[in-house]
Amino acid sequence: MAHSIEIRPFAGEDAQALSGLMAQLGYKVSEREAAVRISDIRKAGGEVFVAVDALGGVLGCVQAMLDVRLAEGRFGELVSLVVDENGRGQGLGRLLAAAVRDWAARRGASRLRVRCNVARRATRAFYERLGFKKLKEQSVWELPLE
Q: Which of 31, 42, 63, 125 has CB 3.0 to 4.6 Å from 79, enough for a Cys bridge?
């Protein structure tokens, strides 16, 4: 199946499909929120890629971003990769991850990171198959600003 797939940047008509994909990850994101967030991602220098079939149907998506840390320097980050549950196991996730890797490399990143919830065992195994190595474990803390 992956041979007839195109990986391209998000377009406005993809918002409904993106909303559905985010729901499969467990996040409620409306079409409007998706469009606004992608605009913000792009303003911050990032990109969102979608995997589409020959008919233009969106089968998966991923966010690419760059990060620079005082202690660690510049690196790319792969965020929110999801393939539609009916299309998993066919190489789409690998294609989306490769798009982020290439995108980050073209922007001067020397490495690519991904964060994964410890509860997502199959996802962790997927990233290991792609060659990612576990760097560390940490907790996420949040302070509401509203």
A: 63
